[in-house]
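User: Hey, quick favor. My workstation is busy. Could you predict this chain's structure for me?
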Amino acid sequence: MNRLEVTEKIITAKVAKGIQWADVAKKIGQSKEWTTALCLGQMTATPEQAKVLGRIFGLTAEEQKWLQVVPYKGSLPTAVPTDPLIYRWYEIVSVYGTTIKELIHEEFGDGIMSAIDFSMDIVRQPDPKGDRVNVVLSGKFLPYKTY
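Assistant: No problem, here it is.
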């Protein structure tokens, strides 16, 4: 048994039962974005969250323990993503990354946007020309310190 096998079991149960991530999120009291990352193996559950997920997805006590192990984050199967949707995010960073960096530095100074003290919100934005994906990323600014 390992974390990847637990993730695969969660996805299998989600499909079989017709579960929506937003419904799971409500039951564990977190955002749908964070909850999805947890269920896909990128976050760490508390014991209470693991129990709730165990009930939802039919996980054993051992499988629930795997949800509480700190995962290896950023574990895409290839350096350049091949999934079309994920590749577009890679493309966005490739094309606009220097612009994002420049504008953050101009506004905040020398530092980074945290992916630890971070939130994300993904919503459908109706548009007569075709619905749009609206993604808001919010990370704490962490300035580089001098020493």
